[in-house]
Amino acid sequence: MRVLVVEDEQLLADAVATGLRREAMAVDVVYDGAAALERVGVNDYDVVVLDRDLPLVHGDDVCRKIVELGMPTRVLMLTASGDVSDRVEGLELGADDYLPKPFAFSELTARVRALGRRTTVALPPVLERAGIKLDPNRREVFRDEQEIQLAPKEFAVLEVLMRSEGAVVSAEQLLEKAWDENTDPFTNVVRVTVMTLRRKLGEPPVIVTVPGSGYRI
């Protein structure tokens, strides 16, 4: 899942981003509304975690622009105000969910995951294919009832492949969904991650390389 965190309190923004990355999400961070508009114009995000009170361009205007563009991106709006009227106003702007500060990180993560599921075709909460069971919420993976420990990026790549339901996923698509914008697009990180993921998943191999196209399960 690709997430953009937009928050002018840099310590909070960086803490949220770090936490979401530990949950196997690809996260970009910006600290003002103008930068947010720039990012959503060039990257495809599943979810934008958007502070309402932003410098340069207000969070309300960022939300409006996302809605105007007709993007599938879901918006989770944050605010220091817990007033019901503010929540209603934020939702009427086009936000998909609303979370007042301070918040529990576990709740933020659950809301981001729930919104992320709404950007794609509805799938069961636990993904199953080729003897693999993947639970995104618990961050658990089993093969033939045996649990497999994966690093966050390995988990993210496997989730993208599982959600494709047998379709081929290119290396570029994996890079877009599982890594943030600071990753060198010419790196071999996707190939290396797929190799280690194959090894951990064991025999017989379930990840198929389609020459010149990408990977599928």
From TrEMBL:
Q: Does the keyword Transcription apply?
A: yes
Q: What is this protein called?
A: Transcriptional regulatory protein CutR
What is the protein's species of origin?
Streptomyces pratensis (strain ATCC 33331 / IAF-45CD)
Any one Gene Ontology MF annotation carried by this entry is: phosphorelay response regulator activity
Family annotation (SMART domains): REC, Trans_reg_C
Q: Which residues bind DNA?
A: 124-217
Instruction: Give the protein's biological function.
Output: Member of the two-component regulatory system CutS/CutR, involved in the regulation of copper metabolism. CutR suppresses a defective melC1 gene, encoding a putative copper-transfer gene, probably by altering copper metabolism.
Question: What are the alphabetically sorted keywords of the record?
Answer: DNA-binding, Phosphoprotein, Transcription, Transcription regulation, Two-component regulatory system
Does the keyword Thylakoid belong to this entry?
no
Q: Which PROSITE patterns match?
A: OMPR_PHOB (PS51755), RESPONSE_REGULATORY (PS50110)
